[in-house]
Amino acid sequence: MAKKRSTATRRAESEAAATRAAAIRAEQERAERRRRTLVVAAVVVVVLAIVFAIGYAVQSSSDNSGTAGSTPGGTVGKYAVPAGPADAPTKIVVYEDFMCPFCGEFEKVTRSAVQGGIDAGTVQVQYHVLNFLDRSSTTRYSTRAASALGAVLDTSGPAVAKKFHDLLYEHQPQEGSAGLSDAQLLDFAVQAGASRSAVSSAISSQKYKNWVANVTDQASKDGVTGTPTVLINGKRASGQTTDQLAAEVESAIKG
Amino acid sequence: MRWSWAGVGLLARLVVGGVWLVAGVVKLPDPAGSVRSVRAYRLLPESVVPVVGHGLPVLEILVGLCLVLGVFVRAFAVLSAVMLAAFVTGIASAWARGLQIECGCFGSHGNAAANAQAAYPWDIARDVGLLLLSAWLVWRPRSPWAADNVLLPQRPAEATYDRTHEETREHGEEAVNGHP
Quick one: DSSP state of residue B107? Predict the structure, then answer.
C-alpha cells in the first residue's frame, strides 16, 4: 500500500517536475523571442533612420530645383518666354519640353495659326520650357535646349527666341538619342538671328540650367503633370489629343 | 510540401525585393523628377513632398536589398507591405479623383499622362500582388539562402523554416528524418 502510494506519488511528482520544467523552458523561449524581436525592431528602426537621413541629404543636394540661378532677361513672370505683344487680347500659355514628341506634333500643327496671331498682334504665347524629359536623351538635351532658349531670349529678344524655339522643334531629335549638340544649338541660334559671340558661352556653359529646373519645379507646383499643357486666357485646354488641343488653340486665335 | 513552401518564401523575397531595388535605383538619378511624381498625387502637403521624394528611393533600395539578401525578412516585409498599401491608396485616390498622372513607380517619364486612366488598374494590380507576397513573408519569413538563417538561427525544435510548431510536435524526430 505504502509502496504503491509511493510509486504513484513519485510518478505524479516527476510529472509535475517535467511540467514545471517545460513551462520554464517555454517561458524562457518566449522571453528569448521577445528579446530578439525587440533587438531586431530597434536595429531596423535605427538603420532605417540613418539610411533615410543620408539618402535624403544626398538626393536633395543633387536636386537643383529651388536653387536661385541666373534668370534670362525678357521673361514673363520669371518663368515664361514670351512671343507676341504683352497687350495682345488672347494669351496662350504652353508648357512643353524640347524632347517631347507630342509637343513637336502640337508645334507643327499650330505653327502657322500661332505665328499669324503673333504677327497680327492679337496673340501672345508664353512658353514654359521644361526639362522633365532629361532622361529621354543621353545628354540632358531638354535642359540644354531650354537653357539655350533662355540665352537667346536674354541676348537677342523674344522675336529671335521664337524663331530659335521653332527651329529646335523643326529639328527635334528622336527620343533616346543624344539630342542636338551644343554646336548645333549655337548654329540654330545664329540662324534665328542671335549673335554668335553673344550666346556662345551661355549655351555651352548651360548658364540658365537652374532657371530651367525652377521653371519645371514651378510647373509641377502649378499642377502641370504632362506636356504639352496649354492654357488659353488662363483656362486649361481640355483636349486629350494633340489634334483636340490644336483645334482649341486655333479657334481661340481666330476669336 | 516543405520544399515548395520554402521555395515560395525565396521566390517572394526575390520578386518583391527585386522590384523594390529596381524601383529605387531608376529614381536615384532624377531626384527632382521623384519629387514631382510625389507632388502630382496632390495628397501630401508641400512641406513634406521633397522629403518623401528624396528619401523614398533610398528607402526602396534598402527594403529591396534586405529582402533579396534575407536580412530581417519579417521586419522589412512589414515595411514593404505598409509602403505598398500606401501606394495602392495613392493610386486609387488619383484614379478616383480623375487625375491624369503616371504612377511614378519606376521614375517619371512625362508622356504617359494621356493614357493614365488605363494604367491605374494595372499599377494597382501589380502593387496588390506584391502586397500579398509581402504578407506571405510576414507570415512565414523563413526561407533558404537568407542571411537570417545565420543572423537569427533557430533552435533545433523549430529549425526547419517551413514547419509549424504543431507539425514538429506531432511528427517529432522521425518525421524529420523520414524526409529526404
Answer: B
Question: Model confidence over A28-79: pLDDT tens digits?
Answer: 999 998 998 899 999 999 999 999 999 999 999 999 888 888 999 999 999 9
Q: For residue A216, which amino acid is it?
A: T
Nearest residue on chain A to B112, judged by CA atoms? A226
Which of the 8 DSSP states describes residue A180? S
ipTM for the complex?
A: 0.83
**Across A137-241, where does the E strand assignment appear?**
229-232, 235-236
Q: How far apart, in whole angstroms, are the C-alpha atoms of residue A25 and residue A142?
A: 67
| CA-closest candidate to residue A97, choices A159, A172, A152 | A172
Neighboring chain B residues of A216 at a CB cutoff of 8 Å:
32, 36
Q: Is B50 on the interface with A (CB under 8 A)?
A: yes
Cβ pair A225:B113 closer than 8 A: yes
Among residues B177, B89, B73, which one has the least CA distance to residue B135? B73
CB A34 within 8 A of CB B29: no
CB–CB of B27/B34 below 8 Å? yes
A234 three-state secondary structure: coil
Domain borders along chain B are: 2-153
Check the CA dihedral A80-A83-A87-A90 and report its sign. Answer: negative
The reported pTM is 0.83
